[in-house]
């Protein structure tokens, strides 16, 4: 069995702050510690009424700090792997993937989603320490959540994908199951089939890791999203053979 039902949570401490994460999963909450002066709460919380992980996109104002761009919209992320904060390149903080020794067939998920009201993109002008954040609103774009699972080949179980390399065409992702949604008012269960990417077929003699990644803004890694977008994930399960 390879699954997470969001009913067991553990305390995680970062600096002087302690927050909760689902057992055997990681979140971007440590980035919330880094941005504590710009947001009013951490990204992923436990909703006692729903029994689900609640993942938010926060309004982090859109600014620059010594040339590091802080976006207007910062999306929360829940994933399999570990989070190791890299303040100068936050996409490198998410170390996606855990060892997986079967051929995955189906990703089962129960979720609901509410997009935020206003969608923004944050870009930068200038370079180096003088770089400034430029925030643009796109009134016609509706934010989307993303829930995806990636099976990728590794040379060693120490290897991982991060927020940059998971989108890299050169990555060794061989199978993917995914969905995006602009909204789901009530908890909905979906079964998503794993599809081959064309970069190889499953070989039981090789090493693989599986990354399940859930985010409240599907383009959050590109500094695009709507503050107030909220994704609730009640359970995740991968079936394999």
Task: Please supply descriptive tags for the structure shown above.
241 residues, 23 strands, mainly beta
Model description:
The termini are close together. The protein has one helix at 29-34, and strands at residues 2-4, 9-14, 17-22, 26-27, 44-47, 52-59, 63-65, 68-70, 73-75, 77-79, 81-83, 94-96, 98-99, 104-114, 120-125, 132-137, 145-154, 173-181, 184-193, 195-196, 207-215, 224-225, 230-240. The protein is built from one helix and 23 strands. It is an all-beta fold and 241 residues long. The strands form six sheets. Strands 1, 5, 6, 9, 14, 19 and 23 form a seven-stranded antiparallel β-sheet that branches. Strand 2 (9-14) and strand 3 (17-22) form a beta hairpin. The mean pLDDT is 91. It is globular, with a radius of gyration of 18 Å.
Short overview:
By secondary structure, this protein is mainly beta.
Outline the secondary-structure elements:
Blueprint: E1 2-4, E2 9-14, E3 17-22, E4 26-27, H1 29-34, E5 44-47, E6 52-59, E7 63-65, E8 68-70, E9 73-75, E10 77-79, E11 81-83, E12 94-96, E13 98-99, E14 104-114, E15 120-125, E16 132-137, E17 145-154, E18 173-181, E19 184-193, E20 195-196, E21 207-215, E22 224-225, E23 230-240
Antiparallel strand pairs: 1-23, 2-3, 4-10, 5-6, 6-9, 6-23, 7-8, 10-21, 11-12, 13-21, 14-19, 14-23, 15-16, 15-22, 17-18, 17-21, 18-20
């Amino acid at each position: 069995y390879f699954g997470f039902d969001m009913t067991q949570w553990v305390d995680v401490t970062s600096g002087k702050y302690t927050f909760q994460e689902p057992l055997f999963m990681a979140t971007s909450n440590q980035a919330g510690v880094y941005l504590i002066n710009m947001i009013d709460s951490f990204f992923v919380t436990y909703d006692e009424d729903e029994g689900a992980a609640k993942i938010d996109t926060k309004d982090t104002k859109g600014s620059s700090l010594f040339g590091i761009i802080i976006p207007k919209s910062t999306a929360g992320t829940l994933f399999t792997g570990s989070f190791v904060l890299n303040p100068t390149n936050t996409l490198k903080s998410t170390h996606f993937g855990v060892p997986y020794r079967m051929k995955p067939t189906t990703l089962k998920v129960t979720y609901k989603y509410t997009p935020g009201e206003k969608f923004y993109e944050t870009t930068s002008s200038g370079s180096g320490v003088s770089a400034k954040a430029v925030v643009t609103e796109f009134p016609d774009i509706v934010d989307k959540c993303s829930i995806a699972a990636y099976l990728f080949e590794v040379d060693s179980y120490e290897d991982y994908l991060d927020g940059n390399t998971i989108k890299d065409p050169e990555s060794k992702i061989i199978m993917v199951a995914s969905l995006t949604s602009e909204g789901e008012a009530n908890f909905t269960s979906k079964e998503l089939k794993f599809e081959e990417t064309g970069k190889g077929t499953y070989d039981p003699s090789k090493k693989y890791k599986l990354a399940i990644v859930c985010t409240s803004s599907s383009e959050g890694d590109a500094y695009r999203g709507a503050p107030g977008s909220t994704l609730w994930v009640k359970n995740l399960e991968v079936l394999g053979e």
